[in-house]
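Lab meeting, item 3. Inverse folding demo.
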């Protein structure tokens, strides 16, 4: 069968890589893909991004199944377009994707359905927003309502920063329409984890847990990024906490959407903050898999992903039991010079070793020009190492990272530090 993966990041490379391991797959098209998907004989890049044009392509090529990676096409309604034409696609409808595409939608949804999250209010009026900040004090968190490619959240540690963030969004319109409304919410302290499940409209299938590293620099310093590394499993999510998150957050979300008349299908990603008493709250929802969380998660998945996806689009996820590699997988992101503000493009990448039993390198911002691999985006590669212990997984990842070269490469040296510091 033929499969279409929509997107061009490390997440899509990892999804396509995993789907390609299925014996039933003839070709996997990646739209538009990257230098890594271009170099893999089992994958084929296609330069189409418009959802309607992708549906034309899926029809012409008799694509059996389409999997969507990023939020932008989901929020634009790619799932609605494919379904209206009878094409099988895994992802949320445009309506369901509002859980990610509007912070205000997500917050009022959580409040209505008693899903634990930070206290908040939404503003479009500048003066009212400033007054609320003064009343609440710092630290406080300012979030653009709409999709802002990771630039829409300011965790303000003092009042000056909080007021500046509101001005940036509501008065200077730096984020355009996405920042025309802001959610201002209570600062939550604790440790974050990524909790991702697959939903077929009715049944919920949790994937392995993971933890991202949002800050650019070691010891969680520097600016927020799309994610500088992730590992799976996340030991902070104990079996007890897992059950609680399912009971208090995931199940009420899927059921609450249905009660509100919106059937949720697709990946549902709850970004959690877990306080020092072990209580989870929802920081945000994403309606897709995480990047870079997908890379270590796919590296650990043993079950045939094509089969899982078929059950997902047919509403039979209750018959699937996922099998995971028991090892830890650790993904280290190598980013371009200047990332996240102004990533430089066009650096020559060399030294990527072939995949082994304990390491694989997924591409993100790369392109293949003749035979030369060039950087073409902020996050360039995600190197995944696997090992029986967190330490060994880390070693296997960094052994590969050190072999790879491009000018100005930035990467954290401490991915996995929370798991390593944990006392079991
Ligand atoms: P979001 O896109 O909403 O997940 O926010 C991006 C990042 O900002 C999160 O991963 C957290 O690190 C941080 N963040 C978001 N909301 C809060 C909050 N209420 N308290 C503390 N940190 C937050
Ligand atoms: N790694 C965080 C995200 O995908 O949103």
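The presenter then showed the designed sequence:
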């Amino acid at each position: 069968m033929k499969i279409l993966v929509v997107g061009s990041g490390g997440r899509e490379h990892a999804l396509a890589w995993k789907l390609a391991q299925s014996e039933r797959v003839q070709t996997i098209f990646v739209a538009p893909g990257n230098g890594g998907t271009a170099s893999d004989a089992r994958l084929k890049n296609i330069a189409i991004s418009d959802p309607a044009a992708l549906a034309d392509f899926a029809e012409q090529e008799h694509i059996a199944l389409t999997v969507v990676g990023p939020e932008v096409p989901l929020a634009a309604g790619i799932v609605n377009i494919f379904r209206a034409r009878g094409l099988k696609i895994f992802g949320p409808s445009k309506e369901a994707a509002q859980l990610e595409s509007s912070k205000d939608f997500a917050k009022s949804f959580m409040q209505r359905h008693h899903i634990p999250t930070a206290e908040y209010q939404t503003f479009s009026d500048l003066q009212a927003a400033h007054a609320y900040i003064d009343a609440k004090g710092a630290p406080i968190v300012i979030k653009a309502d709409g999709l802002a490619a990771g630039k829409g959240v300011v965790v303000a540690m003092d009042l000056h920063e909080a007021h500046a963030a509101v001005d940036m969004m509501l008065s200077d319109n730096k984020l355009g329409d996405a920042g025309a409304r802001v959610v201002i919410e209570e600062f939550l302290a604790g440790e974050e984890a990524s909790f991702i499940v697959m939903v077929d409209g009715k049944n919920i299938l949790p994937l392995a847990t993971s933890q991202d590293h949002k800050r650019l620099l070691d010891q969680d310093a520097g600016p927020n990024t799309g994610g500088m590394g992730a590992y799976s499993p996340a030991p902070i999510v104990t079996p007890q906490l897992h059950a609680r998150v399912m009971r208090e957050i995931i199940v009420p979300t899927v059921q609450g959407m249905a009660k509100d008349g919106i059937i949720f299908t697709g990946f549902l990603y709850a970004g959690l903050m877990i306080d020092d008493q072990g209580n989870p709250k929802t920081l945000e929802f994403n309606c897709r898999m995480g990047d870079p969380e997908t890379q270590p998660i796919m590296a650990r998945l043993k079950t045939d992903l094509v089969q899982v996806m078929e059950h997902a689009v047919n509403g039979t996820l209750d018959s699937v039991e996922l099998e995971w590699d028991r090892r830890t997988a650790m993904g280290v992101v190598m980013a371009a010079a200047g990332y996240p503000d102004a990533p430089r493009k066009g650096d020559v990448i060399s030294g990527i070793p072939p995949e082994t039993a304990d390491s694989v390198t997924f591409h993100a911002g790369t392109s293949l020009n003749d035979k030369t691999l060039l950087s073409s985006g902020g996050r360039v590669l995600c190197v995944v190492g696997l090992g029986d212990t967190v330490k060994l997984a880390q070693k296997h990842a960094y052994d590969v990272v050190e072999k790879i070269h491009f000018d100005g490469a930035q990467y954290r040296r401490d991915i996995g530090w929370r798991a390593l510091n944990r006392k079991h």
